What does this fold into?
Amino acid sequence: MVSIKGRAVPTSQDGADYREPLAAEEAPEAADSVAEHEVREGQVDAASHGERLDKWLVKLAPEFSRNHLQSLVERGHARVDGQVQRTASRKLRAGQRLLLELVPTDESRAFTPQALPLVIVFEDAHLLVIDKPAGLVVHPAAGNWSGTLLNGLLAHHAAAATLPRAGIVHRLDKDTSGLMVVGKSLEAVTALSRAIAAREVHRHYLALAQGEVAWAERSIDAPIGRDPVSRVRMAVVASGRPARTDVQRIATSGGFSALACKLHTGRTHQIRVHLAWMGHPLVADAVYGGVAALGLQRQGLHAARLGLRHPVYGEWLEFEGPPPADFTQAWAQVTGR
It folds into this structure.
C-alpha cells in the first residue's frame, strides 16, 4: 500500500507486485512477433543472373532503403528457394524464387501502444503517478525501441497519443526504481513542465553509495554536462548546466553509505554524477565507477518520495513508494533496518 495524504491505494489493480526488476523473459513481446507482415515474392530472371541479393530486393520493394533491406536479410526475413538467407551479398541465379517479409523497423515501434503491467499509485483525469520498476526504460531510444514506459502509456489511455512524449515530463534512468509523475492532459503536461522547471516539484531519493561518507549533510552544487571523453556519461564540467543535490547521511557500515538525496534540478544522471564526483559512486553503477555489492546488480538508487501541487486543481499531493526487494535487502545491510 502507498499512503497519499492519509489515503491508501493499492499499488496495482490486480494485487500483483510489479516492483521487481523485469527479467528478460518477462519483457513485452516485440510487435513483429505477433503481427502479420506483408510478404513479397518474385523470381530471378535471366537479366538478373549473378546480381547481389540486396540489390535484387530493391526491385522487389523499391519503397525501402537498401540498408533496411540488408538488415531484413541479416535478421532472417529473406528466403531463397525456401531457405533462409542471411548474406546480403549472395549472388543469385536465374530461376531462383525469393520471398521477403517486410518487417517494420525497430524505430517504427517507438510510438506503438503496448500493454504493460504499470504500477499506478495515483490517477485522475489529469495526472498519473507510477511506481517504475528497475529495468523499465522510460522513453524509446537506440536499443530500446519497444517495451518502454511510453509504449505502456499509449496503451493505458487514448489521450497519451496526443501529448508530447505521451505525457512524460521527467525521467528515471532505466535501472532506477521509484515514483514518477506523468501528465494525462495537455493542461497538466504544461503545468507540470513549468513546475519542474521552477523547482516546485519535490523529488526525494534513497541511495546506496560506496565508501563511508564522512559528512552528515552536504549540498552538492556543481554543473553537469556531457563527459568530454565518453558520450555515454555525464560529468561535472565548468561548461555544464547548474545542478544541485542535497545529500544526508542515514547510516554507514562495512564500507558503504545509506543516503537520502533531494534534487533541486533534474540533470541527466544527476545524483549518480554528483556522488561519483564526491568519491562515492552508487553501488553497482558501473558507468560511474560503482561495483556490484550488497546483492545489488543494478545501481543503488530509488525514487522514494514525490511532492507536487496538482497541475489543475491546486491541491498539494505527496506520495511515498517503498523500494523493491533487492534495494530493501541491500539497505538493511547498511542501516540495520
The chain is about 15% helix and 25% strand. Residues 1-35 have pLDDT under 50 and may be disordered. Residues 186-197 form the longest helix (12 residues).
